[in-house]
Request: fold
Amino acid sequence: MAVVDITEIAERAKQRLSGLSYRVLVCAGTGCIAGGSGAVYDEFLRLTGAAPGIAEVALVGDMCGNGVSAVDADNPTGEPMQVKAGLGVGADGVVSRTGCHGLCQKGPLVTLQPLARGAEEILFCHVTADDVAEIIDTSLHSGGVVERLLYRTPDNGHTFRNSRDIPFYARQKRISLVDCGHVDPESIEEYIARGGYAAARRAITQMTPAQICDEITASGLRGRGGAGYPTGIKWQATLAVEDQVKYIVCNGDEGDPGAFMDRSIMEGDPHRVLEGAVIAAYATGASRGYFYIRSEYPLALQRMHRAIDDARGAGILGKALFDSRFDFDCEVVEGAGAFVCGEETALLASIEGQRGMPRAKPPFPAQKGLFGKPTLVNNVETLATVRHIVERGASEFRKHGTTQSPGTKTFALTGRVLNTGLIEVPLGTTLHEIVFAIGGGIPDGRAFKAVQIGGPSGGCLGVEHLEMPLDFENLSRMGAMVGSGGIVVLDDTTCIVEVARFFMQFTQQESCGKCVLCREGTKQMFALLQDIVDGRSQPGDIELLEETAKAVKAASLCGLGKTAPNPVLSTLKLFRSEYQAHIDRRYCPAGVCSALKTYTIDPSLCKGCSRCMKNCPAEAIEGEKRAAHSIDVTKCTKCGICASLCKFNAISAV
Amino acid sequence: MNEILDSFNNDPYRLIAILQSVQEEYRYLPEPVLSYIATNLGLPRARVFGVATFYAHFSLQPKGKYVVRICDGTACHVNRSQSLLDLMDERFKLNDNKPTTDDMLFTLEKVSCLGACGLAPVVVINDRVYGQVNVDKLGAVLDEILEDEERRR
Amino acid sequence: MSETNSIPSAVISEKNTLIIDGRMVTIGSERNLLELIRSAGINMPTFCYHSDLSVYGACRLCIVELQGRGIVTSCTTAPEPGMVVSVNTAELRRIRRITVELLLASHDVNCPTCAKSSSCRLLDLVARLGVSTVRYRSRAAKQPIDTSSLSLVRDPNKCVLCGDCVRVCQEMQGIGALDFAYRGSKVQVLPAFGQGIGEVECVNCGQCSAICPTGALTVKSDIDRVWQALHDPSKVVAVQIAPAVRVGIGEAFGLAAGETHIGQIAAALRQMGASYIYDTAFAADLTVLEEGTEFLKRFRLGERLPQFTSCCPAWVKLAEQRYPDMLENLSSCRSPQQMFGSLIKQELAKETGRSSDDIFILSIMPCTAKKFEAARPEFSTGGRPDVDAVITTQELARMIREACLDFTSLEPDSLDMPFGFKSGAGILFGASGGVAEAVLRFAGEITAKRWLNPAEFHRVRGLEDTREACIDLGGVNLSVAVVNGLAAAQRLVDDVRAGRKRYDLIEAMACPGGCICGAGQPSMEGNAVRVARQQGIYRLDTMLQMHKSQENPYLQQLYKNVLQEPGSHIAHELLHTHYRPRRRTGAHEIDFDTGEEQSEGAAVHIEVCVGTNCHIKGSHDLLHNLIDHIDKNSAGHLVDVSPTFCYEACDRGPTVKFNDEILEKCTFEEIAGRLDRELEQLASREATEVGKIRDES
Reply:
């Protein structure tokens, strides 16, 4: 098969864009599509088609760019979507679709990417189809700015034209997300034109598998999917096992509620993941690869499929890659909705068509994995980092992060924080930096309470941990976990017991049910937590909860069980008094647990309108018309309907 | 049915993919179909049943015309996705135990995370994603569907 | 490895040892750390480890602390020289206790009335680990108990989800009637689609109940029915006792495994009110003659070989489900239990001058599947079953206790004649290989035309799941296979079908070791008990005066007076049976909805069976070609074709239902031809009708 000529592709792309002054990038991440970016894209195509010679319009996967950096005009990119839509290429610019910018809550996002020198990059937020004509008139034709669509900081309303300057982006360091939001994820040419697959070619044609493993080991890269096992050691172990058939599996079963890093990478820059897989396969001697992706991620599935097909078409997958003697091909396997399949042995069982039940290790997948063959299992983000290391070398990678945890890590920042979205920061960045500098702090003037990091396997960090550098060691010492990297910010309106209950409900449903400790332990812990928030707890419940949690953590079969108690243990450590209050005083300090509230009517505010009385399902409210009403606490079911109906704010819960 | 099995070479290792394709075709996994698959793949029926019930994606019950998937991931949960679940219970008496309305119009599914946390809380109805949904917004969308259905009748 | 640094230097010098709780232990041939710990004399608790099955690692009771690696399950860990293992630490003990406490919290603890209470491993662990309270609040909603099976009762409220039953059914029996379903806190062990265990492909071997550590799977009790008959003055209760029962029952009373207690059983039964106490081994002798004669005939003619034995009802059901086309290879002989039932009921009625309705035949069996067998419709006469009740060895032991008899001090009593008399060959039926050996002692002598030493056929004995022997009988070579465990049996049959193996006679038994290890026997652990019971059977054979069925004088008399000769018409009526293919799917009829639009106005309805056997025979291609054919003729609106399940004529497949008629051994050409004719007729009818309408108008 013909080898892809990278230079030629770059040249072709340059030709296509020469003479255009802008590329219009319309975000096509899940978030922006939900906000209507498809209509925006269509409108751009319609209008630029009607008035050719302005720009190329593109939809981009997940625009997680660290601000869309000004593109080197000598290395422009992208296959214009107009071709597919049957429209002529504009003369002044192109419209492309890209991946998620990370700032999903501001979507749909549109970026004007300058192609000609002197033009300026502009990011527009909350764009609707109705705004398109104005953008074209004001910005593309006249070089002006539609002020009302610019990014505005939530706190002081400061506006930014260029996304680079937005605090959310300015403090990040992007390695695996570097091109997310910059490339058309459905164009292999564009990926190649931006230097893609050069690392794979170099690895396969100029390095031995052992050399690559050594380089990865030297970089100190640790698995981005969970516990942070050194990636290089895993590769070496797989390489060391002699077998005719070996497999590589990319774990894209990102099931942590509150995490979407892997989705964004696969949607925004799928070829980067694929290139990592090709390099990993060569380095370990694998001939076949599987991308296991959750079915909840239709766009990621579609883009990975496309990437693999395109790569195969270009000769980057198949036989004799880059004219070497190395054969490699891969396929996408769609998950069927089971969190536990993120555990590697369960994932392998699932690929084999079985119930996703983990088994004891050893033997490790490197020794006995898929179909009994040596198998390397790596997470999406891990593979997305490989290209960078092979390209720039281990020492360059080590310039970021800490000695023990080098490099950067993506996190999904969500919850009670001003700027939610996807971020990539060097490991060792403090929580304070993430929550306040990047996240913009807590909205509505509330106080920071804790972050939940690592989802159901992770734990909570409180105010006292704000200055702690986030890395694998520190987190695991705190009983938390990097996990796949979800950071959910909690403020003082969040009840910590309720949060622990939420996660335990999740794990007891998602446990595979195989081993006793995890299955029964999570079930009982959930029941205890439910009792606590429902006001049915008994003295001694905290101790029982803690003892159970420790046993489950110590002796469960797999990683899911061993980490399932983390949300409980870490919150017990930080917020024991809050638990205690629920049990001893039947009081929820955050005012969340409805069963623990007492509703009262302030007679000075009550006008006696009877609205509450008429609507109370428990008939617990009494009083004469036009006189202050009162609530019979013995009848009150604490549903809160009265408080939500009262026009005079006379009803409150304590 | 046979085409699906053939396209996977009747390979028992591809059971999950086969079930996915079959479900796409039938919208759920009828019992006789599962028996048929088991026979063709040479697997015990209890095994196929076990796999089909392990994964949340599979349904052994017919689903309604509109599948309302409410995300109850962390971010959505913190942003009060429970109120949306309550709404479904109030309006259609739909909950974990009874996911589908008797008229087969709506099926409620609680999903763990759709990965669109930036838009929390998120609701997906069939393939349409709705972000930052509150009770009023969901109610309005459901009303629209109901009106639409009424008109069609 | 880095761990070696922390190991005392004295240990490293010992190449093949490791340390368990401070003691140095030599690593032998143990497959895992658990076995090693046990062989070091530590009775490590576990639910889910069984040496015959795959390692599961789920119960978390056999946890140990491994220096450098933390807490691991010993069953999943390979012993390595230099390991430092702690079995008994405060933390490990705490975790084991919590584990048992967690299990108890979701367990239906009606222990005093539970059928398993005397052998419950959970109860044992509660006592051993000192679990004194259950702090978790009970919340599990009660699930219905599955009583659909004639042999087994499944109580999900007592299941600890160790998966032993799932693995024994899959790995040892190759059936897979049970599997895990659902997930997380909702996980359950269920038959397919949550159907009753009696409605699915379960063959009633009961090995699941034997291995179940709790009362989640138990043998269905028929004790009450038996007491009722014993107390009913209008009934004459005649008992047959299977060979394996006598070497097993002692264990239920704390006696050594393998000792024979037939005399005590007879004494107990008589005290409980039984009128006649006979031996199934007599009927086994009868089986030898019938089955041996049948075999010799087939062997001479070279037809329907290999001949499979048909004594094991679990094997017979499996064959009916899975090998409908090979059913003619099964011996047509009923099992000894059923031969006894039909024959003795008739003979006793004659002898006592009473109606056969008053004769109550009670079987004491080591087996759960015998309960199912006795209820098969073909084994009933005039609407009443030939065998009225089947109880297991364990049930008998329970009745003896209930009757307040001290089994160990009972004065041995003798069996009644003539049907209590047997040769050693009849006794051999209790152990795997016994039927084959007994038949050889008969058929071999006939073929070789001389007296043969019974010891010549010991080669079929053993404990392996599959054994084969080529036996030279005076120039005639007889190839015999003995298989126990239905997974091994299926492998063997597949080999035979594929032509990889060729045998003349195959003995197939469902339970490992044969009937002595039936699921109705007292619960056992480990191979030692199996060997002891087997030796007990062989000892009995040696001790009896006669070793060949054909030498049994009462049997000879029976043939003279009643049965004429083996294979006679009357013998066939009383002692033989026929088999029918059995679909393995649920009890109810299945609608196969293709999900496509059903053509409402279709004039022709065709359903093609796509069940296992029809599928093998090409119904899949038939269906496809048929659909193509219809498409080609653009007759889609007239013909409604759909796949369906089993018409229970699997041996004559592919089966097609054409309108209301069921056609067997169909080919595509046949169906297509018939369809074309039908469509032509339809067209001409339509034409006439149109003509008529035209005429009328």
